[in-house]
Amino acid sequence: MLLKLYAKDNNPRDMRRVVDILNDGGIVIYPTDTMYAIGCHALKERAVERICKLKKLDPAKSHLSIICYDLSSISEYARISTPVFKLMKRNLPGPFTFILPGLSRLPKVFRSRQGQEVGIRMPDHPLLREIARQLDAPIMTTTLPVTDDMEPEYSTDPELIDEAFGDMVDLVIDGGIGTLDVSTVVRCTDDEPEILRQGKGELIS
């Protein structure tokens, strides 16, 4: 199912439809400030496990990430020191994934990795942040399950994304043509932040 949505001023019924699907444990594909992504209500463990199976992700080996609406909601799900809070405040919203120690409020599947680390995203994308605000919960998020033999358009064109993955998910949001950009990954579990992957975001330290 493909649903056209815009950065803002969407029909409230359409927004409610997206939120209802997430609340019901559904899986949605959506645009971000980097590439299109696939996600679910992060507190619905079965939905998270469904995405892990779809992506062939082992939670014990892979960082699972969540999208939060604002910094105060991030603190409900990850441990943030004062220096890291200031770092995140300077850079978010933006194309970053901050790796932080996860808290017990997240489902068990997030805590199966040694160190119980979780990736935190707060994308600079008005539509996605509004969905997170209305959901009033974090969104588990990961990249699309593309294969090496797929053309790049299957990661950027919502109609082709729907053609390739529509049967695997409950909704594909058409937010226009996306990009192939990735987020900059910053580990903040030690004293000094460490950039694990340089992506679109230029970290202001």
Structure notes:
The chain has 205 residues and is of the alpha/beta class. The chain has one domain (2-197): DHBP synthase, CATH 3.90.870. 29% of the residues lie in helices and 22% in strands. The chain has a ten-stranded mixed sheet, with helices on both faces. Helix 1 crosses helix 5.
Quickly list its features:
single chain, 205 residues, alpha/beta, DHBP synthase
Q: What would you call the shape?
A: globular
CATH homologous superfamily (4th level) name = DHBP synthase
Q: What portion of the residues fall into strands of 2 or more residues? A: 15-25%
Number of DSSP strand runs: 10
Instruction: Give the structural class.
Output: alpha/beta
Main sheet specs? 10 strands, mixed
Average pLDDT = 95
Total domains: 1
* Uncertain ranges: none
Tell me the radius of gyration: 16 Å
Q: What is the H/E order?
A: EHEEHEHHEEHEHHEEE
